[in-house]
Amino acid sequence: METIITKIDRKKPDMEVIQQAGKILASGGIVAFPTETVYGLGANALDPKAVEKIFKAKGRPSDNPLIVHISSQEALSALVSEIPPVAIPLMKHFWPGPLTLIFPKSSIIPKEITGGLSTVGIRYPVHPIAQKVIQAAQVPIAAPSANLSGKPSPTKAEHVIHDLKGKVDMIIDGGCSAIGLESTVLDITGEIPMILRPGGITQDMIEAVVGPILLDPALESRREVSQATVPKAPGMKYKHYAPKAQVEVIVGEVLAVTQRIQQLIKEDKSHRKIGVMATDQTQSQYEGENVFVLSVGDRKQPETIASHLFDVLRQFDEEDIDVIYAEGVPEVQVGMAIMNRLVKAAGYNILYV
């Protein structure tokens, strides 16, 4: 397959490119495009054959549900069988934006979207290119992250091109994703809303609007979800976000973490290439032969860590690193989402110090 690759200005998007993407989507093709979270790989959510192309291009398990993206709140009613009252203030405060809400699905949502479940995740993205592409397609768009399944999510068009060139119809380069982590997924089908996947919209932000909410127990257990489990949202069951290298997350006070990582470097006699995922405050504290240190951001501004996390994991891949020691961060605010992605990238390989 020949992939059309085109660059676009998010502030002044070329409407010819937008219309071309819309026509591809409306006719059953798949298009990668930027959103505020990560790049998405889109297909007509109401066309099962188009949706199947997403799974084939990504190598994605068929029971891993897809999020449906819309370009107006008015589009929601046709896709769901019920809008719980709690959805109203949530949509008012956080849509458009990086919040996915889980609703009871309507009959027009195919089983390929939901993994056979009776619920569907809906998001209204704020990114102007994403909005315009969905509008041009004139259909709701199913769009998981535009990467090979299990690999670090794409926050730049180069990441998409590396993974999916020749497997998709079109890639729109709209620059870097601002948030850098996938959307928060909130299940509102139960009595009390529950976060299934943390993201840029934090628990505190949601609770300020609707009161106390729950966290999915799997987020706190730090154990891999059973293979018999049917995931209700993306990112819950399978190993995700993983570079080629083995990843170990070191968790504790900053000084103890840096000392343990440096000790691990000194004790390693295997001549492996070692990567250290440090922060602006700690990157100068590591040294050793065959050691490659990258800062993922500023501990005082954890949103910078979120926005660079997947790009840094991919940079380690480019350097053919064998093992990565990653500093943990406090699990407050967006730190919960950062650690969720890091721990999954590590296959739950955590060292507490």
Task: Describe the protein in words.
This protein has 353 residues and is of the alpha/beta class. The protein is 31% helix and 19% strand. The longest helix is centred in the last third of the chain and has 17 residues, at 302-318.
Domain tally: 2
What would you call the shape?
Answer: globular
Any idea what the CATH architecture of the largest domain is?
Alpha-Beta Complex
Total DSSP E strands: 16
Alpha carbon gap, first and last residue: 49 Å
Biggest sheet overview: 11 strands, mixed
CATH fold name of the largest domain: DHBP synthase
Quote the beta fraction: 15-25%
Structure annotation, total helices? 11
SSE string, helices as H and strands as E: EHEEHEHEHEHEHEEEHEHEHEEHEHE
Give the strand line-up of the largest sheet. Answer: 1-8-2-3-7-4-6-5-9-10-11
Tell me the Rg in angstroms.
Answer: 20 Å
| Poorly predicted ranges | none
Q: Name the CATH superfamily classification of the largest domain.
A: DHBP synthase
User: Would you tell me the overall average pLDDT?
Assistant: 94
Helix percent reads 25-40%
| Main CATH class of the largest domain | Alpha Beta
What structural class do helix, strand and pairing data support?
alpha/beta
